[in-house]
Amino acid sequence: MTSSQTDRNRWAALYVLCAGALMIVLDATIVNVALPSIQDDLGFSASNLAWVVNAYLIAFGGLLLLAGRVGDLIGQRRIFLIGLAIFTAASALCALAQTQEMLIGARFIQGVGGALTSAVILGMIVTMFPKPGEQAKALGVYGFVASAGGSIGLLSGGVLTDLISWHWIFLINLPVGVITGVLALRLIEPKPGIGVGAGADIPGAVLLTAGVMLGVYTILGITEHGWTSNRTVGLAAIAALLLGAFLVRQARIENPLMPLRLFRSRNVTGSNLVMAMIVVGMFGLFFLGALYLQRILGYAPLEVGLAFLPSTVVMGIVSLRASQPLIMRHGPQRVLVPSLLVTIAGLLLFARTPVDGNYVLDILPATLLIGLGAGLSTPAVIALAMSGATPQDSGLASGLVNTTVQVGGAIGLAVLATLASERTGDSTSAVALNSGYHLAYLIGAGALAVAVVIALVVLRVPRAAVSESAPAAAFAAHAG
């Protein structure tokens, strides 16, 4: 095979990986649009309806770190394909569900498949594209999928639910999953893992999975039970003990499941903190912003998706076209900080939206700024997060980034929703609801301001721009 054919295959493999990632990312928001229809059809109560989302999030968030490390041990392509098969089969079960129990159970299985699929994608991308220039471009493509997938999910969920039925939000995954799996087998080169003996820590795996799952379960219950309830405090303490026991074990055994050396890298630790703050801000837009459009302005689900479409287009343009040359010319940190400031400006504009808001004057400018900021910041922060990991730990680093997104999103949404509800109180007026949303946008902007400080103080990158031909090591040399 010629070098040009090999190069084409690598880029084709990237698009296959991103198709798998997009299918998983879409699922996070496409289901939210369909929840009212699911509730009416299957007779869910308001409290039980949350489990359609929570069952997925608990499995997904709880298994990401473990899945990433298992990919390092037995092969990342193998884990990707196993996860894709589970996710696709579970999607069929969700579509066929005729009872509440069947749908919730299928959603949990879907979360398992989503975790396995998502956890290793970034690791495979940085392995396939070791040169900094190519890697930055590839991460720009992935960054678009990661950042724009939420708004694409709102649009597609509105279309499928309004025009056909909620069953189709799951059925659509079947052809996508099968085609992605077939193409992955043909295009993604199988590479052996480092071996089960390098980290087959079964007790550690149990502690990690139980601790993270219980932690996610606790976070998801905060909105209903409160931050200081006995339930929240007790479950959080148990989750902390499980994770603490896991970390102690990893520090003492010879072949740990999660080598703690990864966290010595300032870029790995700092970038994941920045990513968590970004997710809090973005959740403020996509979830509470969608509620503002529906509850205050009276938008239908399809109209909500269309309202966010310009933001998605901007994200796509800057992620795919602008992020790579800017990161190569100025370095990821110098791209990250201004893009965070642009996103903050968009959230502050959203924090002044009136109850009789006009789309063109009050909403569009804010969504365009957030699209621009997210389209540049996501590839930059992912590049920094992955730059501190060795090839042997790339799956773990990939799983860590995805765990940060999921757990950070769960915490962020719990915080924002709780504080917005507390400000609104018992009032059902549009003014009171909007006041709560405004507080959430401001908190999201504050989280991004914290991200700016972390990016300036913690992250370390080369002063000079990394040349196109420089080896990947030049990019990672300043990771620690």
UniProtKB/TrEMBL annotation:
Where in this chain does the record put each Major facilitator superfamily (MFS) profile domain? 13-463
InterPro entries xref list: EmrB-like, MFS, MFS_dom, MFS_trans_sf
Membrane is among the record's keywords: yes
The family database entries (PROSITE patterns) matched by this protein are listed as:
MFS
Tell me where it mainly resides.
membrane
Q: What's its membrane topology?
A: Multi-pass membrane protein
Q: Which UniProt keywords apply?
A: Cell membrane, Membrane, Transmembrane, Transmembrane helix, Transport
Q: Which GO terms describe its molecular function?
A: transmembrane transporter activity
Q: What stretches pass through the bilayer?
A: 12-35, 47-67, 79-98, 104-127, 139-160, 166-188, 200-220, 232-251, 272-292, 304-323, 335-351, 363-384, 396-419, 439-459
Q: What is this protein called?
A: MFS transporter
Q: What is the lineage of its organism?
A: Bacteria, Bacillati, Actinomycetota, Thermoleophilia, Solirubrobacterales
